[in-house]
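Sample 1 of the test manifest.
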Amino acid sequence: MQDLSDEELMARYTGGDSAAFAALFERYAPRLAALFRRALPRHVEVQDLVQQTFLQVHRARHDYQPGRPLRPWVITIALNLRRKRYRTLSKAERELVVDPSESGEAARRGLERREREQALRDALERLRPNQREVIELHWFEGLPFAEVAKITGASLSAVKVRAHRAYEALRGILDPGT
Amino acid sequence: MSRGSPTCCDRTAAALRAGRAPAPSGCATCQALIAAARLAPVGEPEAFDAGAAFAELEGALAAEAGWRGRLRAWPTWARVLAVVLAALAIGALNAGFAPRPDLAHYPWPRLVLVLGLCFAGVWAAGAGALWPLSRPELKPATAGVLALLGLAIPLALALAPEAAATLPACAPPAGMFRQKAIGCLVFGCLCAVPALLAAATFTRGALSITDGLLVASAGALCGQVALQLHCPIVGAEHQLAGHVPVALALNAAVCLALLLKNRGAR
Protein backbone atom coordinates (compact mmCIF):
# COMPACT_ATOMS: atom_id res chain seq x y z
CA MET A 1 0.00 0.00 0.00
CA GLN A 2 2.91 2.35 0.78
CA ASP A 3 3.96 2.54 -2.87
CA LEU A 4 0.54 3.43 -4.17
CA SER A 5 -0.48 7.01 -4.87
CA ASP A 6 -3.46 8.57 -3.10
CA GLU A 7 -5.50 8.29 -6.27
CA GLU A 8 -4.64 4.60 -6.69
CA LEU A 9 -5.63 3.94 -3.08
CA MET A 10 -8.94 5.73 -3.62
CA ALA A 11 -9.57 3.72 -6.78
CA ARG A 12 -8.94 0.51 -4.83
CA TYR A 13 -11.22 1.69 -2.06
CA THR A 14 -14.12 2.50 -4.36
CA GLY A 15 -13.52 -0.95 -5.83
CA GLY A 16 -14.17 -2.47 -2.38
CA ASP A 17 -10.69 -2.72 -0.82
CA SER A 18 -11.18 -1.46 2.75
CA ALA A 19 -7.45 -1.76 3.52
CA ALA A 20 -6.91 1.06 1.02
CA PHE A 21 -9.23 3.27 3.08
CA ALA A 22 -7.22 2.53 6.23
CA ALA A 23 -4.03 3.43 4.36
CA LEU A 24 -5.57 6.71 3.19
CA PHE A 25 -6.67 7.48 6.73
CA GLU A 26 -3.19 6.87 8.09
CA ARG A 27 -1.74 9.09 5.37
CA TYR A 28 -4.15 12.01 5.75
CA ALA A 29 -5.25 12.02 9.40
CA PRO A 30 -2.24 13.89 10.93
CA ARG A 31 -2.38 16.63 8.25
CA LEU A 32 -6.12 17.02 8.61
CA ALA A 33 -5.75 17.20 12.39
CA ALA A 34 -3.25 20.06 11.90
CA LEU A 35 -5.66 21.75 9.49
CA PHE A 36 -8.40 21.65 12.13
CA ARG A 37 -6.13 22.69 15.00
CA ARG A 38 -4.97 25.81 13.14
CA ALA A 39 -8.41 27.38 13.09
CA LEU A 40 -10.33 25.83 15.97
CA PRO A 41 -9.88 26.23 19.72
CA ARG A 42 -8.10 23.43 21.52
CA HIS A 43 -11.15 22.11 23.26
CA VAL A 44 -12.75 21.17 19.95
CA GLU A 45 -12.45 17.44 19.34
CA VAL A 46 -10.08 17.33 16.37
CA GLN A 47 -10.19 13.54 16.28
CA ASP A 48 -13.94 13.70 15.84
CA LEU A 49 -13.59 16.11 12.92
CA VAL A 50 -10.96 13.92 11.25
CA GLN A 51 -13.33 10.96 11.60
CA GLN A 52 -16.20 13.01 10.21
CA THR A 53 -14.05 13.99 7.25
CA PHE A 54 -13.39 10.36 6.42
CA LEU A 55 -17.01 9.43 7.01
CA GLN A 56 -17.88 12.07 4.40
CA VAL A 57 -15.14 10.72 2.10
CA HIS A 58 -16.84 7.33 2.43
CA ARG A 59 -20.30 8.75 1.73
CA ALA A 60 -19.08 10.79 -1.22
CA ARG A 61 -16.86 8.06 -2.70
CA HIS A 62 -19.04 7.73 -5.80
CA ASP A 63 -18.73 11.49 -6.40
CA TYR A 64 -14.96 11.17 -6.70
CA GLN A 65 -13.84 11.14 -10.30
CA PRO A 66 -11.05 8.58 -10.79
CA GLY A 67 -7.81 10.13 -11.96
CA ARG A 68 -8.50 13.54 -10.42
CA PRO A 69 -6.13 14.62 -7.62
CA LEU A 70 -7.47 13.27 -4.33
CA ARG A 71 -5.81 15.71 -1.95
CA PRO A 72 -7.74 18.86 -2.95
CA TRP A 73 -10.93 16.79 -2.88
CA VAL A 74 -10.34 15.60 0.70
CA ILE A 75 -9.17 19.03 1.86
CA THR A 76 -12.31 20.65 0.42
CA ILE A 77 -14.41 18.27 2.54
CA ALA A 78 -12.30 19.03 5.62
CA LEU A 79 -12.48 22.80 5.10
CA ASN A 80 -16.25 22.69 4.65
CA LEU A 81 -16.62 20.65 7.85
CA ARG A 82 -14.33 23.05 9.67
CA ARG A 83 -16.41 26.04 8.58
CA LYS A 84 -19.60 24.32 9.72
CA ARG A 85 -18.05 23.46 13.09
CA TYR A 86 -16.67 26.99 13.53
CA ARG A 87 -20.13 28.47 12.95
CA THR A 88 -21.52 26.43 15.83
CA LEU A 89 -19.02 27.89 18.34
CA SER A 90 -19.97 30.79 20.56
CA LYS A 91 -17.64 33.77 20.81
CA ALA A 92 -16.41 32.57 24.20
CA GLU A 93 -15.78 29.08 22.87
CA ARG A 94 -13.54 30.45 20.14
CA GLU A 95 -11.02 31.61 22.75
CA LEU A 96 -8.04 29.48 23.62
CA VAL A 97 -8.61 26.81 26.24
CA VAL A 98 -5.35 25.56 27.80
CA ASP A 99 -5.35 21.90 28.73
CA PRO A 100 -4.99 21.89 32.54
CA SER A 101 -3.97 18.24 32.69
CA GLU A 102 -0.34 18.93 31.63
CA SER A 103 2.27 19.92 34.21
CA GLY A 104 6.04 20.56 34.63
CA GLU A 105 8.47 20.77 31.68
CA ALA A 106 6.01 19.22 29.24
CA ALA A 107 3.49 21.85 30.22
CA ARG A 108 6.05 24.66 29.69
CA ARG A 109 7.06 23.34 26.26
CA GLY A 110 3.44 22.75 25.46
CA LEU A 111 2.60 26.26 26.55
CA GLU A 112 5.38 27.79 24.41
CA ARG A 113 4.25 25.80 21.44
CA ARG A 114 0.67 26.76 22.05
CA GLU A 115 1.65 30.42 22.43
CA ARG A 116 3.39 30.28 19.06
CA GLU A 117 0.45 28.47 17.56
CA GLN A 118 -1.93 30.92 19.17
CA ALA A 119 0.01 33.91 17.81
CA LEU A 120 -0.16 32.40 14.35
CA ARG A 121 -3.82 31.46 14.80
CA ASP A 122 -4.61 35.02 15.94
CA ALA A 123 -2.73 36.41 12.96
CA LEU A 124 -4.61 34.13 10.58
CA GLU A 125 -7.84 35.04 12.34
CA ARG A 126 -7.28 38.70 11.55
CA LEU A 127 -7.08 38.00 7.83
CA ARG A 128 -10.19 37.93 5.69
CA PRO A 129 -11.60 34.39 5.54
CA ASN A 130 -10.87 34.03 1.82
CA GLN A 131 -7.28 35.25 2.35
CA ARG A 132 -6.79 32.92 5.32
CA GLU A 133 -7.90 29.93 3.30
CA VAL A 134 -5.51 30.72 0.49
CA ILE A 135 -2.56 30.94 2.90
CA GLU A 136 -3.53 27.74 4.64
CA LEU A 137 -3.85 25.82 1.42
CA HIS A 138 -0.87 27.31 -0.40
CA TRP A 139 1.62 27.58 2.45
CA PHE A 140 0.59 25.14 5.16
CA GLU A 141 -0.83 22.46 2.88
CA GLY A 142 1.66 23.05 0.08
CA LEU A 143 -0.91 23.07 -2.70
CA PRO A 144 -0.22 24.92 -5.94
CA PHE A 145 -2.37 27.92 -6.79
CA ALA A 146 -4.22 25.96 -9.48
CA GLU A 147 -5.47 23.47 -6.87
CA VAL A 148 -6.22 26.24 -4.38
CA ALA A 149 -8.39 27.83 -7.07
CA LYS A 150 -10.31 24.58 -7.54
CA ILE A 151 -10.87 24.13 -3.81
CA THR A 152 -12.01 27.68 -3.17
CA GLY A 153 -14.04 27.97 -6.35
CA ALA A 154 -12.19 31.17 -7.34
CA SER A 155 -10.26 31.96 -10.50
CA LEU A 156 -6.50 31.47 -10.60
CA SER A 157 -5.88 35.20 -10.91
CA ALA A 158 -8.20 35.95 -7.98
CA VAL A 159 -6.32 33.39 -5.86
CA LYS A 160 -2.98 34.99 -6.76
CA VAL A 161 -4.24 38.44 -5.81
CA ARG A 162 -5.64 37.10 -2.52
CA ALA A 163 -2.38 35.31 -1.78
CA HIS A 164 -0.31 38.43 -2.38
CA ARG A 165 -2.52 40.51 -0.10
CA ALA A 166 -2.71 37.73 2.49
CA TYR A 167 1.07 37.17 2.68
CA GLU A 168 1.64 40.92 2.96
CA ALA A 169 -1.01 41.18 5.69
CA LEU A 170 0.34 38.16 7.58
CA ARG A 171 3.84 39.61 7.55
CA GLY A 172 2.47 42.94 8.78
CA ILE A 173 0.56 41.29 11.63
CA LEU A 174 3.33 38.94 12.79
CA ASP A 175 6.08 41.53 12.48
CA PRO A 176 4.59 45.01 12.69
CA GLY A 177 8.10 46.58 12.43
CA THR A 178 8.51 45.65 8.76
CA MET B 1 0.41 30.31 -18.13
CA SER B 2 -1.80 27.24 -18.13
CA ARG B 3 -4.08 26.57 -15.19
CA GLY B 4 -2.21 23.39 -14.29
CA SER B 5 1.45 24.51 -14.43
CA PRO B 6 3.09 25.60 -11.17
CA THR B 7 3.60 29.32 -10.74
CA CYS B 8 6.78 30.92 -9.45
CA CYS B 9 5.01 31.30 -6.09
CA ASP B 10 4.27 27.55 -6.04
CA ARG B 11 7.97 26.82 -6.65
CA THR B 12 9.00 29.33 -3.97
CA ALA B 13 6.58 27.77 -1.45
CA ALA B 14 7.82 24.26 -2.28
CA ALA B 15 11.47 25.31 -1.83
CA LEU B 16 10.75 27.03 1.49
CA ARG B 17 8.78 24.04 2.76
CA ALA B 18 11.67 21.73 1.81
CA GLY B 19 14.16 23.99 3.63
CA ARG B 20 15.87 25.06 0.40
CA ALA B 21 16.65 28.61 -0.69
CA PRO B 22 14.04 29.70 -3.22
CA ALA B 23 15.14 30.79 -6.68
CA PRO B 24 15.49 34.57 -6.99
CA SER B 25 12.23 36.07 -8.16
CA GLY B 26 11.02 39.56 -8.83
CA CYS B 27 7.45 38.50 -8.12
CA ALA B 28 5.89 40.62 -5.37
CA THR B 29 3.83 37.68 -4.06
CA CYS B 30 6.99 35.54 -3.80
CA GLN B 31 8.69 38.30 -1.81
CA ALA B 32 5.72 38.57 0.54
CA LEU B 33 5.61 34.76 0.85
CA ILE B 34 9.32 34.55 1.72
CA ALA B 35 8.93 37.23 4.41
CA ALA B 36 5.75 35.70 5.87
CA ALA B 37 7.13 32.14 5.77
CA ARG B 38 10.02 33.10 8.08
CA LEU B 39 7.49 34.25 10.66
CA ALA B 40 5.04 31.38 10.16
CA PRO B 41 7.01 28.15 9.69
CA VAL B 42 4.99 25.09 8.76
CA GLY B 43 6.47 22.76 11.41
CA GLU B 44 5.71 19.10 11.94
CA PRO B 45 2.10 18.16 12.62
CA GLU B 46 1.34 17.31 16.25
CA ALA B 47 1.16 13.62 17.11
CA PHE B 48 -2.15 12.04 16.15
CA ASP B 49 -3.24 8.57 17.17
CA ALA B 50 -4.51 7.48 13.78
CA GLY B 51 -4.95 3.85 14.89
CA ALA B 52 -7.37 4.65 17.71
CA ALA B 53 -9.23 7.18 15.58
CA PHE B 54 -9.62 4.69 12.74
CA ALA B 55 -10.86 2.00 15.13
CA GLU B 56 -13.67 4.35 16.19
CA LEU B 57 -14.36 5.31 12.60
CA GLU B 58 -14.80 1.67 11.62
CA GLY B 59 -17.88 1.52 13.88
CA ALA B 60 -19.43 4.46 12.02
CA LEU B 61 -18.52 2.90 8.67
CA ALA B 62 -20.23 -0.35 9.66
CA ALA B 63 -23.43 1.62 10.28
CA GLU B 64 -23.19 2.93 6.72
CA ALA B 65 -23.83 -0.54 5.35
CA GLY B 66 -27.61 -0.11 5.86
CA TRP B 67 -30.10 1.05 3.22
CA ARG B 68 -29.78 4.73 4.18
CA GLY B 69 -25.99 4.58 4.02
CA ARG B 70 -26.20 3.03 0.57
CA LEU B 71 -28.71 5.65 -0.64
CA ARG B 72 -26.68 8.65 0.48
CA ALA B 73 -23.56 7.21 -1.08
CA TRP B 74 -25.22 7.59 -4.50
CA PRO B 75 -23.49 10.14 -6.72
CA THR B 76 -24.83 13.65 -6.21
CA TRP B 77 -26.52 13.81 -9.63
CA ALA B 78 -28.50 10.67 -8.77
CA ARG B 79 -29.48 11.99 -5.33
CA VAL B 80 -30.77 15.24 -6.87
CA LEU B 81 -32.56 13.25 -9.58
CA ALA B 82 -34.31 11.23 -6.85
CA VAL B 83 -35.77 14.46 -5.41
CA VAL B 84 -36.94 15.55 -8.88
CA LEU B 85 -38.44 12.09 -9.45
CA ALA B 86 -40.35 12.40 -6.17
CA ALA B 87 -41.90 15.62 -7.51
CA LEU B 88 -42.55 13.92 -10.85
CA ALA B 89 -44.32 11.04 -9.09
CA ILE B 90 -46.53 13.48 -7.16
CA GLY B 91 -47.33 15.29 -10.42
CA ALA B 92 -48.17 12.01 -12.19
CA LEU B 93 -50.41 10.86 -9.31
CA ASN B 94 -52.32 14.13 -9.38
CA ALA B 95 -52.65 14.16 -13.14
CA GLY B 96 -53.78 10.54 -13.10
CA PHE B 97 -56.08 10.39 -10.07
CA ALA B 98 -57.05 13.92 -9.07
CA PRO B 99 -56.59 16.19 -12.09
CA ARG B 100 -57.98 19.71 -12.18
CA PRO B 101 -61.42 19.63 -13.81
CA ASP B 102 -60.39 22.17 -16.44
CA LEU B 103 -57.26 20.24 -17.47
CA ALA B 104 -58.62 19.52 -20.95
CA HIS B 105 -59.34 23.23 -21.48
CA TYR B 106 -56.29 24.67 -19.79
CA PRO B 107 -53.76 26.21 -22.23
CA TRP B 108 -51.12 23.49 -22.63
CA PRO B 109 -48.17 25.76 -23.42
CA ARG B 110 -48.82 27.60 -20.19
CA LEU B 111 -49.13 24.37 -18.20
CA VAL B 112 -45.88 23.07 -19.67
CA LEU B 113 -44.16 26.36 -18.83
CA VAL B 114 -45.54 26.42 -15.28
CA LEU B 115 -44.62 22.78 -14.59
CA GLY B 116 -41.21 23.25 -16.23
CA LEU B 117 -40.55 26.20 -13.95
CA CYS B 118 -41.60 24.20 -10.88
CA PHE B 119 -39.48 21.16 -11.82
CA ALA B 120 -36.49 23.38 -12.59
CA GLY B 121 -36.97 24.93 -9.17
CA VAL B 122 -37.15 21.50 -7.49
CA TRP B 123 -33.95 20.52 -9.26
CA ALA B 124 -32.11 23.74 -8.33
CA ALA B 125 -33.26 23.79 -4.69
CA GLY B 126 -32.63 20.04 -4.40
CA ALA B 127 -29.14 20.48 -5.79
CA GLY B 128 -28.52 23.21 -3.23
CA ALA B 129 -29.88 21.08 -0.39
CA LEU B 130 -27.77 18.08 -1.41
CA TRP B 131 -24.68 20.13 -2.34
CA PRO B 132 -21.70 17.85 -1.62
CA LEU B 133 -19.03 18.81 0.90
CA SER B 134 -16.43 17.84 -1.69
CA ARG B 135 -17.26 20.97 -3.70
CA PRO B 136 -16.57 24.58 -2.69
CA GLU B 137 -19.30 25.79 -0.37
CA LEU B 138 -22.30 27.52 -2.00
CA LYS B 139 -22.03 31.29 -1.76
CA PRO B 140 -24.58 32.67 0.73
CA ALA B 141 -26.23 34.73 -2.03
CA THR B 142 -26.67 31.63 -4.21
CA ALA B 143 -28.05 29.59 -1.31
CA GLY B 144 -30.40 32.49 -0.48
CA VAL B 145 -31.72 32.68 -4.04
CA LEU B 146 -32.29 28.90 -4.15
CA ALA B 147 -34.03 28.97 -0.77
CA LEU B 148 -36.33 31.73 -2.01
CA LEU B 149 -37.34 29.83 -5.17
CA GLY B 150 -40.02 27.93 -3.25
CA LEU B 151 -41.69 31.23 -2.47
CA ALA B 152 -40.76 33.26 -5.57
CA ILE B 153 -42.05 30.81 -8.20
CA PRO B 154 -45.56 30.40 -6.68
CA LEU B 155 -45.67 34.16 -6.12
CA ALA B 156 -44.78 34.82 -9.76
CA LEU B 157 -47.40 32.29 -10.88
CA ALA B 158 -50.03 33.90 -8.67
CA LEU B 159 -49.26 37.38 -9.95
CA ALA B 160 -48.99 36.35 -13.61
CA PRO B 161 -52.00 37.13 -15.82
CA GLU B 162 -54.76 34.66 -15.04
CA ALA B 163 -55.25 31.67 -17.28
CA ALA B 164 -58.65 31.57 -19.00
CA ALA B 165 -61.36 30.59 -16.53
CA THR B 166 -63.40 28.26 -18.70
CA LEU B 167 -65.27 26.26 -16.07
CA PRO B 168 -67.32 27.20 -13.01
CA ALA B 169 -64.74 25.36 -10.91
CA CYS B 170 -62.15 27.99 -11.89
CA ALA B 171 -63.59 30.42 -9.38
CA PRO B 172 -64.08 29.54 -5.71
CA PRO B 173 -67.73 29.13 -4.71
CA ALA B 174 -69.16 32.17 -2.93
CA GLY B 175 -68.41 32.14 0.77
CA MET B 176 -65.85 29.36 0.46
CA PHE B 177 -62.76 31.44 -0.22
CA ARG B 178 -61.14 30.67 3.11
CA GLN B 179 -61.98 26.94 3.08
CA LYS B 180 -60.62 26.52 -0.45
CA ALA B 181 -57.45 28.45 0.40
CA ILE B 182 -56.84 26.38 3.54
CA GLY B 183 -57.61 23.22 1.59
CA CYS B 184 -54.96 24.08 -1.01
CA LEU B 185 -52.46 25.02 1.70
CA VAL B 186 -52.89 21.65 3.44
CA PHE B 187 -52.93 19.75 0.14
CA GLY B 188 -49.77 21.52 -1.05
CA CYS B 189 -47.98 20.80 2.22
CA LEU B 190 -48.97 17.11 2.11
CA CYS B 191 -47.84 16.79 -1.50
CA ALA B 192 -44.48 18.32 -0.52
CA VAL B 193 -43.75 15.43 1.83
CA PRO B 194 -42.24 13.03 -0.76
CA ALA B 195 -39.69 15.63 -1.87
CA LEU B 196 -38.93 16.53 1.76
CA LEU B 197 -38.45 12.87 2.62
CA ALA B 198 -36.28 12.26 -0.43
CA ALA B 199 -34.06 15.26 0.38
CA ALA B 200 -33.81 14.25 4.05
CA THR B 201 -33.00 10.65 3.12
CA PHE B 202 -30.31 11.51 0.62
CA THR B 203 -28.55 14.20 2.64
CA ARG B 204 -25.11 13.13 3.85
CA GLY B 205 -24.87 15.00 7.12
CA ALA B 206 -26.76 17.00 9.72
CA LEU B 207 -28.86 19.72 8.11
CA SER B 208 -28.10 23.33 8.97
CA ILE B 209 -30.88 25.92 8.93
CA THR B 210 -29.77 26.98 5.43
CA ASP B 211 -29.92 23.36 4.25
CA GLY B 212 -33.35 23.08 5.84
CA LEU B 213 -34.59 26.14 3.96
CA LEU B 214 -33.30 24.65 0.71
CA VAL B 215 -35.08 21.35 1.45
CA ALA B 216 -38.26 23.30 2.25
CA SER B 217 -37.89 25.19 -1.02
CA ALA B 218 -37.67 21.94 -3.01
CA GLY B 219 -40.64 20.57 -1.06
CA ALA B 220 -42.72 23.70 -1.62
CA LEU B 221 -42.15 23.47 -5.36
CA CYS B 222 -43.11 19.78 -5.31
CA GLY B 223 -46.33 20.87 -3.59
CA GLN B 224 -46.74 23.50 -6.25
CA VAL B 225 -46.53 20.86 -9.00
CA ALA B 226 -49.40 19.05 -7.30
CA LEU B 227 -51.45 22.23 -6.87
CA GLN B 228 -50.99 23.29 -10.47
CA LEU B 229 -52.26 19.91 -11.64
CA HIS B 230 -55.04 19.65 -9.07
CA CYS B 231 -56.49 23.07 -8.28
CA PRO B 232 -58.59 24.73 -11.01
CA ILE B 233 -58.97 28.09 -9.25
CA VAL B 234 -57.00 30.59 -11.30
CA GLY B 235 -57.68 33.78 -9.33
CA ALA B 236 -54.66 35.59 -7.89
CA GLU B 237 -56.37 36.04 -4.48
CA HIS B 238 -56.86 32.30 -4.05
CA GLN B 239 -53.31 31.50 -5.13
CA LEU B 240 -51.86 34.17 -2.85
CA ALA B 241 -53.87 32.85 0.08
CA GLY B 242 -53.63 29.10 -0.60
CA HIS B 243 -50.67 28.29 -2.85
CA VAL B 244 -47.96 30.79 -1.92
CA PRO B 245 -48.10 30.15 1.86
CA VAL B 246 -47.12 26.49 1.29
CA ALA B 247 -43.49 27.64 1.19
CA LEU B 248 -43.90 29.74 4.33
CA ALA B 249 -45.54 26.88 6.22
CA LEU B 250 -42.83 24.43 5.16
CA ASN B 251 -40.03 26.88 6.02
CA ALA B 252 -41.51 27.39 9.47
CA ALA B 253 -42.02 23.65 10.01
CA VAL B 254 -38.53 22.68 8.85
CA CYS B 255 -36.84 25.44 10.90
CA LEU B 256 -38.82 24.47 13.99
CA ALA B 257 -37.96 20.79 13.52
CA LEU B 258 -34.25 21.58 13.13
CA LEU B 259 -34.20 23.91 16.14
CA LEU B 260 -35.88 21.25 18.29
CA LYS B 261 -33.51 18.60 16.97
CA ASN B 262 -30.45 20.76 17.66
CA ARG B 263 -31.72 21.60 21.13
CA GLY B 264 -32.26 17.92 21.81
CA ALA B 265 -28.73 17.13 20.61
CA ARG B 266 -27.13 19.52 23.15
